[in-house]
């Protein structure tokens, strides 16, 4: 791979490096190959030349090569004017940090590299990251029921977390007192799946049968009064031995694998629903267990990844900061939810939890929204200015020995608070505690109550669930418009015939939902996968990173679904029964048990959220408003 040089040097080199015409002849030879494939002399090489140029724009530095006729010529009945350019090559040049970003976006890990002395050229050895999920909806949601390969990827990540990051001595610990001991989750996910399969296949439960009674359901007590807790499985005086739980897990996995023996398409719809429920349940609890583990000092880092250079990342983030802009969100109708009738065994659409159904339309008035979420630095400033001493649970307070060289009155690089305010504070990560000063540009994780106070202090409020969805809808519209404009601007420069043959230059209009539903019988047209799942490429979800990432360079863009730097997004809407809601037959208490006016809806996904969840537009999550441990952030909105 060619690394990114300075623009002036590259332009100079491209002008002199091909003095012997080798590159020209190499690229021109492509036309001769075209003639051979077509079986006739369509291109006469003496009529063509090759143009090479170096471009440095918003996409970075890259070399482009074009075929260009030296005179008017005819190709397969089409006249191509002299000097018109037809692009044949585009070769990007990457800096080291850009290379790292490219590997991550491709789901790859660099295991070795061999560079030239000046590090202008290099050979990189990459392997597929076994613990990273595709962010392309054509892959992560290609079928309604997870494929066996999806399960294998999920289990690889789950096993890494539970067997290589969770030490045995921590299994019986309760890093969060409001939750069960860590060992519960090792038995909970297979037992829950086994229960759903038992309900739908008419086969008996996996042995030992009593695991259903102790591992079926966890606890979620009231934060204010832990004695008040919803129905849950009995908590034994002593948990089963680890080896017994792992053997049970293996049996349940084998039971599941057997259902795929004749292909996923042969699985009945009701059994497929049980499989889907078990898959998303395990994916959700993978994140639950991780945020529990981060409250412990015993947790080990992911063994397959090097520790990030947080100091350098923080320096680069500070240099890349832009203003966090206000965006006008127009008044619009938006679509919520999906249709997924549980009793229709011939239905082939995607599955959804009960709170996602039915598909419906709501009207959202106009308002304004910030482009990105509140950061750790902004929250630290809020604490300092208001004199509050309680820090978020995602932070930690360290014991710091005072230094006579410390100037307690010096400000933290213009942050609005003294350097000393940061000295005893750190951020909890899977790599251990890192100084807060290295995570100032990350989204802050905190409870709704904490962030609502900060939002009000900053001159805004937290959006409702409908407003958040309206933000996502408008963000999608902006992206489509930018993509159309970019295509319209670039395609004619490559080949004007494409424009003449019908490339659409008109920017897309906002979606008109007025005709989507027949008001007489409330019937909807079938939802397309492209309408239900978002492209997550570029989002910090699905273990693309094992930590949040800076968001301060993104203030000039309106963050869409799951684009909060690795944080879920709080809304001010309590979790409530909506019109048409019906508890799901397979798991009736999934949502209905939390209609207590204490839980608020959260949307999007964190860095540890599976793409099937983070990318589904209808998915709804929730936490108690004062629950401090989940990885949820917030952005500001205000009325116009």
UniProtKB/TrEMBL annotation:
Keywords: Iron, Methyltransferase, Oxidoreductase, S-adenosyl-L-methionine, Transferase. Pathway: Amino-acid biosynthesis; ergothioneine biosynthesis. Residues 165-289 form the DinB-like domain. Residues 351-467, 540-638 form the Sulfatase-modifying factor enzyme-like domain. One of its GO terms (biological process) is selenoneine biosynthetic process. Residues 18-126 form the Histidine-specific methyltransferase SAM-dependent domain. It comes from Rosellinia necatrix. The keyword Cytoplasm does not apply. This is Putative DUF323 domain protein. Gene3D superfamilies: paralog of FGE (formylglycine-generating enzyme). Residues 499-521 are annotated as: Disordered. GO terms for molecular function: L-histidine N(alpha)-methyltransferase activity.
């Amino acid at each position: 791979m060619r690394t990114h040089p300075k623009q002036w040097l590259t332009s100079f080199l491209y002008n002199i490096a091909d003095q012997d015409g080798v590159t020209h002849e190499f690229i021109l030879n492509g036309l001769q190959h075209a003639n051979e494939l077509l079986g006739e002399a369509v291109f006469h090489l003496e009529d063509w030349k090759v143009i090479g140029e170096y471009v440095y724009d918003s996409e970075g530095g890259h070399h482009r090569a074009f075929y260009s006729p030296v005179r008017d010529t005819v190709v397969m009945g089409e006249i191509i004017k002299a000097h018109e350019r037809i692009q044949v090559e585009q070769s990007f040049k990457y800096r080291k940090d850009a290379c790292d970003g490219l590997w991550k976006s491709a789901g790859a890990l660099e295991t070795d590299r061999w560079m030239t002395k000046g590090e202008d050229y290099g050979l990189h050895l990459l392997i597929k990251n076994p613990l990273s999920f595709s962010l392309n909806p054509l892959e992560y949601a290609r079928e309604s029921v997870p494929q066996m390969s999806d399960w294998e990827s999920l289990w690889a990540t789950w096993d890494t977390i539970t067997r290589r990051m969770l030490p045995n001595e921590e299994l019986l610990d309760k890093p969060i007192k409001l939750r069960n001991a860590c060992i519960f989750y090792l038995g909970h996910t297979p037992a829950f799946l086994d229960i759903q399969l038992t309900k739908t296949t008419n086969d008996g439960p996996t042995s030992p049968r009593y695991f259903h009674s102790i591992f079926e359901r966890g606890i979620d007590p009231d934060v204010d009064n832990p004695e008040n807790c919803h129905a849950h499985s009995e908590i034994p005086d002593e948990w089963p031995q680890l080896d017994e739980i792992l053997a049970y897990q293996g049996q349940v996995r084998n039971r599941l694998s057997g259902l795929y023996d004749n292909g996923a398409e042969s699985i009945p719809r009701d059994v497929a629903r049980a499989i889907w429920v078990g898959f998303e349940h395990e994916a959700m609890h993978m994140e639950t267990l991780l945020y529990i583990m981060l409250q412990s000092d015993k947790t080990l880092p992911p063994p397959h990844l090097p520790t990030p250079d947080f100091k350098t990342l923080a320096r680069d983030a500070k240099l890349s900061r832009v203003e966090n802009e206000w965006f006008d969100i127009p008044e619009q109708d938006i679509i919520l939810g999906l249709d997924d009738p549980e009793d229709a065994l011939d239905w082939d659409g995607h599955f959804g939890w009960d709170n996602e159904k039915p598909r419906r339309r709501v009207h959202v008035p106009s308002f304004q929204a910030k482009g990105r979420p509140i950061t750790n630095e902004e929250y630290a400033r809020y604490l300092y200015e208001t004199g509050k001493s309680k820090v978020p649970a995602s932070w930690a307070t360290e014991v710091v020995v005072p230094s006579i060289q410390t100037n307690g009155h010096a400000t933290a690089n213009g942050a609005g608070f003294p350097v000393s305010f940061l000295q005893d504070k750190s951020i909890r990560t899977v790599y251990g505690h890192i100084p807060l000063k290295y995570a100032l540009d990350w989204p802050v994780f905190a409870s709704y109550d904490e962030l609502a106070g900060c939002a009000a202090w900053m001159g805004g409020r937290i959006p409702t669930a409908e407003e958040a969805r309206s933000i996502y809808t408008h963000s999608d519209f902006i992206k489509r418009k930018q993509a159309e404009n970019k295509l319209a601007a670039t395609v004619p420069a490559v080949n004007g015939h494409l424009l003449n043959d019908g490339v659409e230059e008109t920017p897309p209009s906002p979606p008109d939902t007025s005709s989507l539903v027949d008001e007489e019988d409330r019937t909807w047209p079938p939802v397309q996968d492209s309408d239900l799942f978002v492209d997550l490429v570029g989002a910090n979800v699905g273990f693309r990173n094992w930590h949040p990432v800076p968001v301060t360079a993104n203030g000039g863009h309106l963050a869409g679904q799951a684009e909060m730097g690795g944080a879920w997004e709080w809304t001010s809407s309590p979790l409530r029964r909506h019109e048409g809601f019906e508890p799901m037959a397979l798991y009736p208490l999934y949502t209905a048990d939390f209609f207590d006016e204490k839980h608020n809806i959260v949307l999007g996904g964190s860095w540890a959220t599976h793409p099937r969840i983070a990318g589904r537009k209808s998915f709804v999550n929730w936490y108690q408003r004062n629950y401090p441990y989940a990885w949820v952030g917030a952005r500001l909105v205000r009325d116009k």
